[in-house]
Amino acid sequence: MIRLFLNGMAASAGGGLTYLRNVIPHLSRRVDTETVVVLNPAMRREFGDLPNATFVEEMESGGALRRFIREQTRLPKLIRRSGAQVLISAGNFALWNSPVPQILLSRNSLYTSGDFLRDVRARGDYAIWADTLAKGWLARRSINRAELTVAPSEAFAEELRQWSGSNVLSLHHGFDRDAFTSDDASLPAAAKAQLEQSRDAIRLLFVSHYNYYRNFETLFRAMPILSSRLKGRQVKLFLTCRLKSEENPGTYRAESAASLANDVRVS
Q1: Does residue 227 fall inside a structural domain?
Q2: Which residue range(s) make up the domain with 213?
Q3: pLDDT by residue (tens digit) across 43-72?
Q4: pTM of the full predicted structure?
């Protein structure tokens, strides 16, 4: 029997949540594996009771730095108490003094991206710029702390090797086709009505909350170009978020994107 300890505290949005929502049920179905999972209470409530999985709730600590410090002090005791043989750190940052071998999942390419740092400085978001630099420093040293670091693609693994000077393996996440296609529930009425109103148009769906690195503005600027190349055929873009800063995770400011979207809509 393999006993794993999965630290999912750092997952708060986007790919981190998607990864946990898929991998935790997958691990629970393995009869040769017992998994102890640390999550924040809001995430914990999504899973209910799963076989071969034990959940430990840890309260949020008010920001990434406080959470990191809390993890460094609390997790070693929890890992020893669980009897786990391997720690999986799923959020880019390693446990500095892990009592068992540690696998680090490194997924955030913002920490290695000069383009992103230049972009946030050009926007005047110096708080995000400083926060990214600090987290990047921790993420790079985390690679050196783990026995094994895994990236979701070979291209990013190579980027991390050059960035950290350590060996990094690529392991494609993949997806469960049956789980992905098994939900045959109808669309909500409001969403269905919106889609039906544009059935004669070319419909584009962009799935994301708002942030700078998803390049919403580039997509908005491309809409008139696409429409002109299609010789006036209507093109309709559907978003899964509202362009309001307070309705998106993180501290990204959506007002300029909202203004650009309105200008494109009018033109």
Answers
A1: yes
A2: 186-266
A3: 888 888 899 999 987 666 566 777 788 888
A4: 0.84
